[in-house]
Write a structure and sequence with these properties.
Oligomer: heterodimer
Largest interface: A-B, 98 and 92 residues
CATH topology of the largest domain in chain B: Immunoglobulin-like
CATH superfamily of chain A: Cytochrome c oxidase-like, subunit I domain
Order of helices and strands of chain A: HEEHHHHHHHHHHHHHHHHH
Strand content of chain A: under 5%
CATH architecture of the largest domain in chain B: Sandwich
Strand order of the largest sheet of chain B: 4-3-2-6-9
Radius of gyration of chain B: 26 Å
Number of domains of chain B: 2
Distance between the termini of chain B: 45 Å
Structural class of chain A: mainly alpha
Largest sheet of chain B: 5 strands, mixed
Order of helices and strands of chain B: HHEEEEEEEEEEEHHHEEHHE
Largest sheet of chain A: 2 strands, antiparallel
Number of helices of chain B: 7
Number of strands of chain A: 2
Chain lengths: 547, 323
């Protein structure tokens, strides 16, 4: 393309790494730790959350090993309770919530809207430091004995009964929450104020719409989590009765407050993934998205309705029947925007020119698994059925289909898709495809049996279980070992590609989007000249004509 | 029968189990339909229109009629599920009027059952077949949850107030009790069994010796704690007469009126100043921290036994309007 040719990247048909890029500016450690470049901050987050992911993964391994046998024989009950708690704490608060927004969001948002950086670059760096401090508290809490309350921290267990590191973990989550709020705020302002000439709202890539919706939830929801954690600390530390009935409090109040954040947080975790899918599916179908506005507005609808469904976690917790009725009704409504997205993505493939590269394999996996994850959510939104299903493995299976089958696949999809842009190098296609297939198979073997276990009645968070459920649990653990290989493989070949990968060139996928019009890796200030947008996004038809 | 080889649902051992499974199967079929639909679209389009066969994509903007169609159809199906499941929920959350009562206290990590006839059990619950059984449950520490998968019932058991569940077992046998709200170290050991018996066997079990009914035990406590001094039932007594109070509407001093259910009686013992009966002074001492949940249940059962004949047992399993 023009930008590439202008900066002289094409030399006799071979791509060469651009001399000047954000990675080559300065190699000192100081230049990394004090960087205000959104692209370098992406790398800082990438390293941090990958570390967190493998801590969370280690605890998942412990859980699945223990559940190979019905008796609780591999570890003590307390150890097991800490393992599932810390698996969730690290995966949710320190991996899933920051995953796409803090890495791909940081890298791409300014590039995608034609800006030099986010609106507040120093605040952006501060967000990372705050995140690291929060994560350090959580890691220290883990090393000095761990925490056993479940990630849900239900009272009065968390305030007056647990003898583990509840406070330190809560402080870690609280601090990390501020990182999330600052990132969200930064992105909202960036999207409003930093768009390049011609980049109107309906020319924004759908990834930006999804990031915008996510940021809204981060800014509006996370403070409630902070308040809730402070109240837990007040009750635990100073015996001020808020949640414990023995002190005059109400334990169900905690659940309302906790889920007021934590249900929308599920959308913090999945919306950016949906944004990635929209980008990748258009690129590899070489086709504009089917129903741009429907996909864009459904993100916003999810963000808004997502705030009104929290008590569907509490249908048997002792809330009034009529409250249950209202929350169930709205929960069914919030399912519709997700259905709209799924149908629009499927329709985008129709009459496309479809390539089966690795990112696209992840899209296929996402569409199947997210559909199952979404539809099984209806089981739990259904009042009567939820009585039987809540707090069983059915719930565990459902949210892993959404969070891993949906979000982690979308994350891997995005990492592969933008890897050439971030690093300037191509990953090797064959092992990448193999890893995508291994993840898909391993995932289904791990979590599909858990739906069956759930309906049979196996409660979640059980260290030991009746012998009749062993077969399904063994299948699940076997699947987890395959899944682990699928997650480790990219670690190997992506690192390998940094040195040995083919040079990517500015636009290896022939994609639209401003990020592909600058070199790979991009220069420090993203663009040599401020881009001017004259077309709508996904103008793949016009691209054809240009060629 | 497929479920003989791969169990797809737990044994159907209560009157609601069949209804629950029917709704479940409907949702499973719904899930299969839409998953297959999406999978077929994705696989078929991406094979048929792969780059080697279809090198130039046809640019399509979208279609408003299609957007409306695929929003409306899922919404319609969702509303069917919503109504169906809501009806089942109301059925399961409100015990029938004619129900046998059992009181359950959860604690880390056991279930303690008290029968109105005076029997006490730990981690076991003996009930007759084909009988409505209403469970009045409370926790003496953290939140627990009482779950019997074969009956398709579950409800959280809270500290500080009674919650309710009910079932009608249709097959004699032994069924799982699980705690399904994480409650600490031995959460997965907080299990037990419901033993459903034929009427004759149940009568035999009942005739095992007890020290008297739950209400009688409550009456003894009522005397020994000194309650009887003020709640003597005599005209001019310092406390209200408890005869016929349970289940009635009580006028309290701030002008409101409340229904005297189990939670009201419990609160009046532990926190007497919260709702004072109109016309009486705030003179009753609190019993908070002095009597166990099990003794409270006995006192509640005693007050309940004084409601006279033809009273309304059961009622709504979860008192509405609390939230």
């Amino acid at each position: 393309m023009s930008a590439a040719a202008a900066s002289g990247h094409l030399v006799a048909g071979h791509e060469v790494m651009p001399e000047e890029n954000y990675l080559s500016v300065d190699h000192s450690l100081k230049s990394w730790l004090l960087t205000v470049d959104h692209k370098r901050i992406c790398i800082l987050y990438l390293l941090t959350i990958t570390f967190m992911f493998f801590i969370g993964g280690a605890f998942a391994t412990m859980v699945r090993l223990e559940l190979l046998t019905p008796a609780g024989d591999l570890m003590q009950s307390d150890t097991y309770n800490k393992a599932f708690t810390m698996h969730a704490v690290f995966m949710i608060f320190f991996f899933l919530v920051p995953s796409i927004p803090a890495t791909l969001g940081n890298f791409l948002l300014p590039l995608a809207i034609g800006a030099k950086d986010v609106a507040f670059p120093r605040l952006n760096l501060l967000s990372w430091y705050i995140f690291v401090i929060g994560a350090s508290f959580a890691v220290i809490a883990m090393i000095t004995g761990g925490v056993d309350t479940g990630w849900t921290l239900y009272t009065p267990f968390s305030t007056n009964y647990s003898n583990t590191n509840v406070m330190m973990t809560a402080v870690g989550i609280l601090i990390a929450g501020f990182s999330s709020i600052l990132t969200g705020l930064n992105f909202i302002v960036t999207i409003h104020r930093m768009r390049c000439p011609g980049m109107s709202w309906f020319r924004l890539p759908l990834f930006v719409w999804a990031t915008y919706a996510t940021s809204l939830i981060q800014v509006l929801g996370t403070p409630v989590l902070a308040i809730t954690l402070v109240l837990v600390a007040l009750e635990r530390g100073f015996h001020i009765g808020i949640f414990d009935p023995a002190l005059g409090g109400d334990p169900v109040l905690f659940q309302h407050m906790f889920w007021f954040y934590s249900h929308p947080a599920v959308y913090i975790m999945i919306l950016p993934g949906m944004g990635v899918i929209s980008e990748v599916i258009t690129c590899f179908s070489h086709k504009r998205i089917f129903g741009y506005k429907a996909v864009a507005f459904s993100s916003v609808a999810i963000a808004v309705f997502g705030f009104l469904v929290w008590a569907h976690h509490m249908f048997v917790a002792g809330i009034s029947l009529y409250a249950g009725l209202v929350f169930s009704f709205i929960s069914f409504l919030v399912a519709i925007p997700s259905a709209i997205k799924t149908f629009n993505w499927s329709a985008t493939l129709y009459k496309g020119s479809v390539r089966w590269d690795t990112p696209m394999l992840y899209v296929f996996g996402f569409l199947g698994l997210f559909t199952i994850g979404g539809l099984t959510g209806l089981f739990l939104a259904a009042l009567g059925l939820d009585i039987h299903l809540t707090d069983t493995y059915f719930v565990v299976a459902h949210f892993h289909y959404v969070m891993v089958g949906g979000m982690v696949l979308a994350y891997l999809c995005g990492i592969h898709y933008w890897w050439p842009k971030i690093t300037g190098k191509m990953y090797p296609e064959l092992p990448a495809k193999a890893a995508a297939i291994i993840v898909f198979l391993g995932f289904n073997l791990t979590f599909f049996p858990q739906f069956i276990l759930g309906y049979l009645g196996m409660p979640r968070r059980y260290h030991a279980y009746p012998a009749e459920w062993q077969v399904m649990n063994v299948l699940s653990s076997a699947g987890a070992s395959i899944l682990a290989i699928g997650f480790l493989l990219p670690m190997v070949y992506l690192v390998w590609s940094l040195k040995f990968g083919k040079v990517a060139g500015p636009n290896p996928w022939q994609a639209t989007g401003l990020e592909w019009e600058t070199s790979s890796p991009p220069p420090e200030h993203n663009f040599h000249e401020t881009p001017v947008v004259t077309t709508e996004p996904y103008h793949y038809g016009e691209k054809e004509r240009e060629i | 029968m497929l479920s003989k080889y791969i169990p797809l649902w737990p044994e159907q051992a209560s009157t609601v189990a069949g209804h629950m499974d029917l709704l479940y199967v409907f949702l499973v079929l719904n899930t299969i339909f839409f998953t297959v639909l999406v999978a077929v679209m994705v696989v078929a389009f991406s094979i048929k229109f792969r780059k080697s066969k279809h090198p130039v994509a046809v640019q399509i903007e979208g279609s408003v009629p299609l957007e409306i169609f695929w929003s409306a159809v899922p919404l319609g199906i969702a509303m069917v599920i919503f109504v169906w499941a809501a009806v089942l929920y109301f059925h399961l959350m409100r015990a029938p009027r004619e129900s046998m009562e059992v009181y359950i206290t959860g604690k880390q990590w056991m279930w303690k059952m008290q029968h109105p006839t005076g029997q006490r059990e730990i981690n076991q619950l003996h009930v007759p077949v084909n009988t409505n059984v209403r469970l009045t449950m409370i926790s003496q520490d953290v939140i627990h949850s009482f779950f019997v998968p074969e009956f398709r019932i579950k409800h959280d058991v809270l500290p500080g107030r009674y919650t309710y569940a009910w079932f009608n077992a249709t097959k004699p046998g032994t069924y799982h009790i699980f705690c399904t709200e994480y409650c600490g170290t031995k959460h997965s050991g907080m299990i037990g069994e419901v033993i459903v018996m034929e009427p004759a066997a149940y009568q035999l079990w009942l005739s095992g010796s007890t020290g008297g009914s739950l209400a009688q035990e409550g009456e003894r406590q009522f005397a020994s704690l000194g309650c009887v001094t003020c709640h003597s039932g005599q005209p001019g007594a310092r406390g209200p007469n408890l005869e016929g109070v349970f289940g009635s509407n009580v006028k309290i001093s701030d002008g409101r009126s409340v229904t005297a259910d189990e939670n009201y009686v419990r609160e009046s013992i532990l926190n007497p100043q919260a709702k004072i009966v109109a016309g009486y002074g705030p003179i009753m001492p609190t019993f908070a921290g002095q009597i166990s949940e099990e003794t409270l249940i006995q006192l509640v059962a005693f007050v309940k036994s004084k409601q006279g004949t033809g009273a309304k047992a059961g009622g709504q399993a979860t008192p509405g309007g609390k939230q």
